[in-house]
Amino acid sequence: MPTPKSSDAAIPSAIAERIRDAILEHRLKPGAKLTEAQLCEVFDVKRGTVRQALSQLAGEHLVDLEPNRGAFVASPSLREVHEVFEMRRIIEAAVIERVCGNQDGKGAAHLKVIAKMIERERAAFEHRDFRSWIRLSGEFHTALAELTGNRVLCNCLAGLVARSTLISALYESLGRSPCSFDEHAQIVDAIGAGDTARASELMVRHLQTVELKMLDRPARGAADLREVFG
Prior knowledge:
Layout: H1 6-24, E1 33-34, H2 36-43, H3 47-59, E2 63-66, E3 70-73, H4 78-101, H5 105-126, H6 130-146, H7 151-171, H8 181-192, H9 196-212, H10 225-228
Antiparallel strand pairs: 1-3, 2-3
Helix pairs in contact: 1-3, 2-3, 4-7, 4-9, 5-6, 5-8, 6-7, 8-9
């Protein structure tokens, strides 16, 4: 059996990235069926390549693979909502403590970068660029984690943030994301002031507010994959 070229081996990951972006930008809703034949047509690849991409996304808990039924965008249960946000509160409180304890000139410069990200998040909302708003809302949390320098922590949180974004697609229409840029700004201000207790309190409260806005009403249905990826 011939060894695949590096470019060929990268194709499933590239397709997975396109599907992942569509899920996290709410262009593909939870419960939407990911028809293999349609994906083959959209991406001009063979079925085996599509299956590799879907398997990768299933490992990230963004896609459910159901025997004899096919692939669907994941529809997290209410229990999973609670578990995901419980883990986020634990991890992100630790992030705050670590970041506040490591404040120096370099850390202050990084906080300014994150503050500018929040302004872009606000501008995206005001201009009704909801796809960018959703992306930037999640990136705020992962950008803070990156200041710890702990790659394992960052990878873990990135996965939880992705699942949180999927969860929000179940319950919130575009333009009503529960993650607030005003609360993000307050958290950064508290970190900049070196107030660990205040920053931790704000982060935990922020994540609790997000969770409380979640309702167990998954949106199921078909999706026109040609339109989504057109």
